[in-house]
From TrEMBL:
GO terms under biological process: proteolysis
Protein species of origin: Sphingobium phenoxybenzoativorans
Entries under PANTHER family matching the protein: LEUCINE AMINOPEPTIDASE-RELATED (PTHR11963), PEPTIDASE B (PTHR11963:SF20)
Domain Cytosol aminopeptidase: residue ranges: 310-317
Keyword Protease on entry: yes
Upper classification of the organism: Bacteria, Pseudomonadati, Pseudomonadota, Alphaproteobacteria, Sphingomonadales
Cellular-component GO terms for this entry: cytoplasm
UniProt xrefs under InterPro entries: Leucine_aapep/pepB, Macro_dom-like, Peptidase_M17_C, Peptidase_M17_N_1
Record's protein name: Leucyl aminopeptidase family protein
SUPFAM superfamilies in alphabetical order: Zn-dependent exopeptidases (SSF53187)
Length: 465
C-alpha cells in the first residue's frame, strides 16, 4: 500500500521544484511576465493553461527547473487540480508557488495510488512529494487518502481473495487499530438471528460462509451513529443467474462494505464524538443445491415476511436484516452504502451515487458536503406510490418489483421498511467503480460518496479537518 505520509510533508524550506498554477483566463498575462526561455519552452510543449495541462519550465541552471499546471480556476482549486501533476511529473520534491494547496493536496496523494497485489509495475514512477506550510491539514489529508485507498484495494481484490472471511479480517484489523469491540455472528446463530443474511449466503462454499460483522466504538454517552455496508463478495445472481457479462465486475459487489469500513476508520481516526456502530452483512450469492429460490418466503429479523421475486435482488435482503439490527440500538442516524442497483447507474452513470433519505435536513447536509469536497451525490425520491410495485399476494413484501420501472427507488423503498421514520436514515446506491481513469482517479475500485458522508459527519458533530 502506498505510504501517503511520505508524499505530503511539512515545508521547512527544503530543496524543491516549484509548481505554478495558471488558468486559461490568466494564462496570457502570466506568459507575458515570463523570460524568453520559459516562453519558448511553453510554446514547444503546447501549454495553454487548460485544466490538466503540464509543462516543465527551465531555470537559470539545469537543476533549477520548475513546473506549471493548468487548472480550471486559480482562485478556487478543486480536489483534483494537482492530480495530473502528481501523475506526470518526475520523481522528486515539489512545492506550490503562492498557493497553500488546501483540498487539492488530496488529489496529489490519490493520483499516486497503485494496486500491485498481483503484479509489480516496474515502470511505475517514484514518489512525488509535496511540501506544504498548512501543517494542520497534513494528517487529515493523509487519513482521507488512506481511506480512499482502502476502498480501492478492497474492491479491486478478486472475490477468491475477498470473501466474507476476508472482509471480517479487514474489519478485525481496523477494529483492533482503534480499540473497537468486534463481534461476528455465523452458522446456526446467524440463521436464527439474521435469517435473510443466512438464506442469501448459505449456498456458498464453507470457506465463504455468510456472517454479520459488527463493531462498536466510542463513548456510549455520545450520539449513536450506525454505518451499514453491503458485503456481497461475489454476486452470481443466484438461481436467477446473471449472464457472464453481468458477472464480470461482481467482485465489486462488496463495495458498500468497503465504504462502510473506510468511513468507520475516518470517524475513529478523527475521534469524532459519536458512538459508532458498524454492521457488515457479508455473503457470497452463490448457486448450489441449497440456494434460496424464486418464490421462497423468508422471515426477516424484523419479522416481516419477504417473498423472493428475484434471487439477484439479494443485497436488499441482507441489508434489511442489518438495518433491523442497527435500529435496535436506537441510533439518531443510520447511513448505509451498497452497490445495489443497475437502475441507479442507468439513471446517473458511474460518477454519481444515488442518495435516498427519509430526512430532508440530512439529505441537504449530505448534498452540500458532497459539493464542498468534490464528492457529488444526487438525491432521488423515496416515492411512496411505487411501494405498490413490491406488493406480494402471500407475504408482507416482495423483494423485487415487477415491470422493471424505478428499480433504484423500489430497492430503497424496500430498505425503508426496516427503518422507522423516527431515525434519520440515508442510503447510498453507489457504483464503487470507475470504468475510465481521470486525474487522481484510476480505473477500478473507487470511493464514491465516502468523503461526502465524512464531511457531513464532521460538520454535524463539531470537528472539521
Amino acid at each position: 500500500m502506498t505510504d501517503y505520509a511520505e508524499l505530503l510533508k511539512a515545508d521547512h524550506d527544503q530543496a524543491a521544484h516549484a509548481i505554478q498554477l495558471v488558468d486559461s483566463e490568466g494564462f496570457p498575462a502570466w506568459l507575458r511576465k515570463q523570460p524568453e526561455r520559459v516562453r519558448t519552452a511553453i510554446t514547444g510543449q503546447k501549454f495553454s493553461g487548460k485544466p490538466n495541462e503540464v509543462a516543465i519550465l527551465p531555470g537559470d541552471k539545469a537543476a533549477e527547473w520548475s513546473a506549471v499546471g493548468g487548472v480550471a480556476d486559480t482562485e478556487k482549486l478543486s480536489t483534483w487540480c494537482l492530480a495530473k501533476l502528481a501523475e506526470t511529473l518526475p520523481e522528486g520534491t515539489y512545492r506550490l508557488h503562492d498557493a497553500p494547496g488546501g483540498a487539492a493536496m488530496l488529489g496529489w496523494l490519490t493520483a499516486q495510488y497503485r494496486f500491485e497485489t498481483y503484479r509489480k509495475d516496474d515502470a511505475a514512477p517514484g514518489p512525488r512529494i509535496l511540501l506544504t506550510r498548512d501543517i494542520a491539514r497534513i494528517a487529515p489529508t493523509v487519513g482521507q487518502a488512506e481511506a480512499v485507498a482502502l476502498v480501492r484495494d478492497l474492491v479491486n481484490t478478486p472475490a477468491a481473495d475477498m470473501g466474507p472471511a476476508d472482509l471480517e479480517s479487514a474489519a478485525v484489523e481496523i477494529a483492533e487499530a482503534f480499540g473497537a469491540v468486534l463481534t461476528v455472528v455465523r452458522g446456526e446463530e446467524l440463521q436464527t438471528q439474521f435469517p435473510m443474511i443466512h438464506a442469501v449466503g448459505r449456498a456458498a462454499d464453507r470457506a465463504f460462509s455468510p456472517r454479520l460483522i459488527e463493531f462498536r466504538w466510542g463513548d456510549p454517552s455520545h450520539p449513536k451513529v450506525a454505518i451499514v455496508g453491503k458485503g456481497v463478495s461475489f454476486d452470481s445472481g443466484g438461481l436467477d443467474i446473471k449472464p457472464s457479462s453481468g458477472m464480470r465486475l461482481m467482485k465489486k459487489d462488496m463495495g458498500g462494505a468497503a465504504h462502510a469500513l473506510a468511513l468507520a476508520m475516518l470517524v475513529m481516526e478523527s475521534r469524532l464524538p459519536v458512538r459508532l456502530h458498524l454492521l457488515i452483512p457479508a455473503v457470497e450469492n452463490a448457486i448450489s443445491g441449497n440456494a434460496f429460490r424464486p418464490g421462497d418466503i423468508l422471515r426477516s429479523r424484523k419479522g416481516l415476511s419477504v417473498e423472493i421475486g428475484n434471487t439477484d435482488a439479494e443485497g436488499r435482503l441482507i441489508l434489511g436484516d442489518a438495518l433491523a439490527k442497527a435500529v435496535e440500538d436506537g441510533p439518531e442516524m443510520i447511513l448505509d452504502f451498497a452497490t445495489l442497483t443497475g437502475a441507479a447507474r442507468v439513471a446517473l452513470g458511474p460518477d454519481l451515487p444515488a442518495l435516498f433519505a427519509n430526512d430532508d435536513a440530512l439529505a441537504a447536509d449530505l448534498e452540500r458536503a458532497g459539493g464542498q469536497v468534490d464528492d457529488p451525490l444526487w438525491r432521488l425520491p423515496l416515492w411512496s406510490p411505487y411501494a405498490d410495485m413490491l406488493k406480494s399476494d402471500i407475504a408482507d413484501i416482495n423483494n423485487a418489483g415487477e415491470g422493471g420501472f424505478a428499480g433504484s427507488i423500489t430497492a430503497a423503498l424496500f430498505l425503508q421498511k426496516f427503518v422507522p421514520a423516527s431515525i434519520a436514515w440515508a442510503h447510498f446506491d453507489t457504483f464503487a467503480w470507475r470504468p475510465a481513469a481521470k486525474p487522481g482517479r484510476p480505473k477500478g475500485g473507487e470511493a464514491l460518496g465516502l468523503r461526502a458522508a465524512f464531511a457531513m459527519l464532521q460538520q454535524r458533530y463539531g470537528r472539521t479537518a
